[in-house]
Write a structure and sequence with these properties.
The complex is a heterotrimer of chains A (78), B (348) and C (343). By secondary structure, chain A is mainly β. Chain A is built from no helices and eight strands. Helices cover 0% and strands 50% of the residues of chain A. Chain B is globular and about 50 Å long. Classes of the chains: A mainly beta (78), B alpha/beta (348), C alpha/beta (343).
């Protein structure tokens, strides 16, 4: 069963704020373990790490440097 | 004898105790203070002799068995004796370019220290450091030729002692001229902020080389500056070894108890030049300086109080002379470093 | 000190995360290691040198200092003398002016002046480099100045794996080690995207020896000796020139003290052509030292005069186009390679 990885909510005051997917640390199709570092995202000056919520094969749904709304899916783990 | 105390709290400053009111130390302690001062002076007189023995004709500073600059501490013995009496060799002492009295009072090995001053392989630094850069890990003694810059590393030693849960302290000594250097101010703030077990000591010998304190420092006393940095400050007048001893006892106890740093300023006297070869033409009171010698004055006091007599004084002087001449002889007999090893010891 | 010949499992990290991982692993291993500097606590370091460490190790070991470089760098020295292993951060290499005495007259000299009896096992970290319009006082490299003054080792990693390996080595070294990280190699999300800032990093204990350069790219036509961010640019240019028939060998110095002169000579001995790329100032520094290394062993190794691509002797300008005109970037590197390879 697959799980979606969402862009984290870094800005609490503006829930639908947009940020950038700054860096992918894993490549498309690679196997990931729970908590493994998947990506680094940025909203304004605040950066955050995105860990894998589960084990499995990761599929990247957005490109690096793409603008993404908070809460939007950025990857899927099968 | 007078002391002036500035507290960093809102409590009123303690009034200066009157002469005679202060508890005198035990006779054994007083005798030891005297003996330490005599040892320091005897040592400096020997270095003075050795330094000048072979500089001629004229004065060639790089020549002879003890080359280079030489900064001797005659007159400042009360600082060393009074402060170091409260320390063990587990405590750290950081001194300046004028370090000998502090090294001696703190227990640095006289032979190895002298060998270093003579630039020999058996010296504390294998002849690499010289008289301004004496390092003795056995007694945690160090000194620096850059005035005031010895303060920050002393903070680090205190930090390490504190981290290990000990009651060891660091004593950091500088001059009144250096109290205007940035490192002094940064160090006082940081030590107070982190409550480091440090005792800051300012030897006010009136002269930063040729510039008197009245023309270098905007305030009357560095003890007054202490409050701005969040620590108590005490000033000792008259180069009084027992007043130094009393004030140091408090500062050392405070640091050991984990209550943080203090600053002690001692009005002392630099009896000789800033360095050997300094004609001191800038010093108007030069002719009177010998009359301010703290050692004969203390001897007189101790004789009057029955602590010393001819026999005891002679014994003390003989012991000092023997120790010093042994150290000098050891140095002279030690081998000089091999020039082929000149680039060794850069890295561990 | 072990060199991990066959790295264990790896995963991709940015240079800053790799550096932080080395610090964390050493702090776990050795309770005497601590990190001290401005904004290294909750902020995680202005250039992400300590991100996450405060949460793991607490404020006793990840320590924010007041703006008192002389005092806290000196404090590090004293703590090291007493057997601790401090890592002290100078926020920008440009700030060396306010505390240089503690660094070059104390940290670097105490071991020697004590005839080897006293050790100062301390790491001095600092961010360096330009390219984002931070102006003349916040864009310098200055590693040449540190390398010039005796008594301190100097390491300058360019890649994530080296950032980890050299940090581990630096912490374990019983000497003072200046560890200089270019802001542009850290992989910071708020700087120009640079794919070379993200790479495989061994997961476990990893040590890179101090004093050994690395052949970042093997080649036969020209030797480009470089360090730090300039290695990335040199590799980019090498990839661009390969299809044009110019095979560039890139030497990543990794350390300036000790300097791996053998690696320089071996490579130049092979190619006969030398380009040095250094983001520090041109005159009296690293690039001259590299050329001198060849000239004083055998100038005959060179079939063409050496080319140096460095920041000219000017303060680094603020305006973007002016700054990029003085930085040793792709266009100038390519030009220099052509200059030594015209037949």
């Amino acid at each position: 069963m697959s799980s979606l990885v969402l862009f984290p909510a870094l800005s609490k005051e503006t829930p639908d704020a947009e940020g950038v997917l700054a860096t992918w640390f894993v490549s498309e199709g690679s196997t990931v373990a729970p908590d493994q570092l998947l990506a680094e995202v940025q909203v304004d000056k605040v950066a955050a790490e995105v860990p894998a919520p589960a084990a499995g094969v990761v599929h990247l749904l957005v490109d690096e440097e793409a603008v993404v709304r908070q809460g939007a899916p950025i990857a899927r783990i099968d | 004898m007078t002391t002036h105390t500035s507290e960093s709290t809102t409590a009123p400053a303690r009034s200066a105790p009157q002469a005679g009111e202060q508890q005198r130390p035990e006779p054994a302690v007083r005798s030891r203070l005297f003996e330490t001062m005599v040892l320091c002076r005897t040592y400096e007189e020997a270095i003075l002799r050795e330094y000048h023995a072979d500089k001629g004709p004229g004065f060639d500073i790089g020549k002879g068995l003890v080359p280079g600059e030489m900064h001797l501490s005659a007159g400042q013995e009360p600082v060393a004796a009074g402060i170091c009496s409260h320390l063990t060799t587990d405590d750290a002492v950081t001194a300046t370019h004028r370090p000998h009295h502090l090294a001696i009072a703190h227990g640095v090995d006289l032979r190895r220290m002298t060998a270093e001053i003579f630039g020999r392989e058996a010296g504390l630094g294998r002849g690499r450091g010289g008289h301004m850069h004496l390092f003795d890990p056995d007694t945690h003694f160090s000194c620096s030729g850059i005035i005031a810059e010895g303060f920050p590393p002393a903070l680090g030693q205190a930090f390490a002692f504190q981290r290990r849960g000990t009651d060891r302290i660091a004593v950091a000594v500088t001059g009144e001229g250096a109290a205007n250097q940035g490192a002094f101010h940064e160090s006082l703030n940081l030590a107070a902020l982190w409550k480091l077990p440090v005792v800051f000591v300012v030897e006010d010998n009136d002269w930063a080389i040729s510039v008197p304190r009245t023309r270098s420092t905007a305030v009357a006393s560095n003890a007054d500056r202490a409050a701005s940095y969040g620590m108590p400050g005490h000033r000792v007048e008259d180069n009084d070894v027992e007043a130094v001893y009393a004030v140091a006892a408090e500062a050392v106890a405070r640091a050991r108890a984990g209550h943080g740093p203090s600053l002690i300023e001692i009005h002392t006297v630099r009896m000789w030049g800033h360095f050997e070869g300094d004609a001191q033409g800038y010093r108007p009171e030069l002719a009177e300086v010998p009359s301010h010698d703290p050692i004969p004055r203390y001897e007189q006091q101790l004789r009057a109080d029955g602590v010393l007599d001819d026999a005891r004084v002679a014994a003390i002087r003989d012991r000092a002379a023997a120790a010093v001449e042994d150290a000098v002889a050891f140095a002279k007999e030690s081998s000089t470093p091999d020039p082929a090893s000149a680039t060794d010891y850069v890295f561990a | 000190m072990t060199i991990m010949e066959a790295p264990q499992a790896t995963r991709r990290l940015t240079t800053s995360k790799a550096m932080v991982e080395a610090i964390a692993q050493e702090m776990e291993r050795d309770p005497s290691v601590f990190y001290m500097g401005e904004d290294v606590g909750a902020y995680g370091g202005i250039f992400s040198s300590t991100t996450g460490l405060l949460e793991t190790f607490g404020p006793q070991r990840i320590i924010d200092t007041p703006i008192s470089e002389t005092a806290f760098i000196g404090l590090g020295i004293g703590a090291a003398v007493e057997g601790m292993r401090p890592i002290v951060e100078l926020m920008f290499s440009d700030f060396m002016g306010v505390c240089l005495d503690q660094i070059y007259n104390h940290m670097a000299k105490i071991h020697f002046e004590s005839g080897g009896h006293v050790q100062v096992p301390m790491v001095l970290t600092m961010a360096a480099g330009g390219g984002y319009s931070d102006g003349a006082q916040h864009s310098q490299c200055l590693w040449g100045t540190f390398a010039h003054l005796p008594g301190m080792k100097v390491v300058v990693p360019s890649s994530p794996a080296d950032a980890k390996g050299l940090m581990t080595a630096a912490i374990r070294d019983d000497n003072p080690v200046v560890y200089i990280f270019h802001k542009g190699v850290m992989g910071l999300p708020w700087m120009v995207k640079n794919p070379r800032t993200l790479d495989e990093v061994p997961e476990g204990e990893y040590v890179v020896p101090i004093g050994k350069a690395r052949v970042a790219r093997e080649g036969s036509d020209v030797t480009v000796v470089s360090l730090s961010l300039s290695v990335h640019h040199a590799l980019d240019v090498a990839e661009k020139l390969a299809p044009q028939g110019i095979d560039v060998e890139v030497i990543d110095l990794r350390s300036l003290v000790p300097l791996d002169r053998e690696a320089i000579l071996t490579s130049v001995g092979k190619t006969g052509r030398l380009v040095v790329v250094d983001e520090d100032y041109l005159s009296c520094g690293v690039s001259g030292e590299v050329v001198a290394t060849v000239a004083e062993v055998d100038p005959g190794l060179l079939v063409m005069p050496a080319q140096r691509v460095a920041v000219p002797d000017v303060p680094i300008p603020y305006a973007h186009d002016l700054e990029y005109a003085v930085l040793p970037r792709h266009d100038r590197i390519e030009k220099a390679i052509h200059a030594v390879t015209i037949r």
